[in-house]
Amino acid sequence: MSFWDHLEELRGTLFRSILAVCLLSIIFLSIKGPLFKAVLWPATQDFILYRWLGLDFNMSLINIDISAQFFVHLKMALLCGVVIAFPYIIYEIWKFIAPALYENEKVSVGRAFRMSSFLFYLGVAVGYFVVLPVCLMFFMNYTVSDSVENTISLQSYISMFVSMVFLIGLIFEFPTVIMILSNLGVIHREDLKKYRRHAIIVVLVLAALITPSDPFSMFVLAIPLYGLYEFSILICKPNEPEESYDLTE
Asked: Is this structure's pTM higher than 0.85?
């Protein structure tokens, strides 16, 4: 295929992916009630983690911008559209790059692509059910003075929701990237083991960028992120032994 043929294929891939996201977003726009019941569930005392821990936790959200609720609805509908369409987007990406791979590479790289959707949804679940509620409890119970009451805006909550749920889902794709690079011979298990100390620093930096940078929420997020690094070591291929030659023959 020529360069322009590849460009045409890429345009088709992007068009079908964007179309899928838009159609799903329209569906979520039409079901505002169930959508925000799920989005706001971690801010209520009925959330599963609070009930499991026996905690009495509840947040009262306010809106201080006249157009905020409308744009929050659009933002969350689009975000949910991307989340639900994620396996299809991965499938479209796979169809685009598969012809450029050898047959043995298609098997191994295809396995990594199939694993990517599972890891993404696992990251979304970890962020939604663990990291987000733990951070909410910490910040709502932290005050500099008894005379200062925490009053949380809707936009502030949604901002934390997106960073705690969607971005964590994307970061959980790290083992997928490592598996693809390993199957292509770019990186090996010994390379990851060598840079364990560096990985700890990178994990802490990522946790600081995603969370509000307080030590508690950073620690809560850094644990699963470093677990991903160790999991990547397990699925990464070891270095292939170099062939030795007997010079006496």
From this structure: no
